[in-house]
Amino acid sequence: MNDKTDLLPLPEIYRWYVTGDYAYPTEVHPEGGAVDYDAHVVAMHAYARANVAHATAPLQAEVESLRAEVEGLHEQLRLATVDQVNAEAEANDARAEIEALQAEIERLRAAINRCQGGSLTACCISF
User: Fold this and answer.
1) Structure confidence by residue, pLDDT tens digits, 57-66
2) Which of 53, 106, 107, 114 is 20 to 30 A removed from 14 (C-alpha atoms)?
3) What is the pTM of this model?
4) What single DSSP character describes residue 28?
């Protein structure tokens, strides 16, 4: 964490005043006793976890937003790829049709050349 991160308030850690067989939490131990070490460690761990969760919650939200954006971009890419594949298939079909038409043009040119040098019958048979 840095100095710009707002920290949560410190947890209350109770001091236990023990009298005979009885123990009860107290704000101030009459004899100035210390807080139980285990309870202090547990409270500080919980406090640290809560601060981390508090500080990282906006980052987690941003990460989720970015994940959703990436998922949307993946879908756009998938659709664009499908469109590209379809466009390439259409282009290949168009190329094949152009080649067939060019072959037909060549056949007709050859037939016209035969007609120009021969008889009308030979011309009609070649078409």
Assistant:
1) 999 999 999 9
2) 53
3) 0.45
4) S
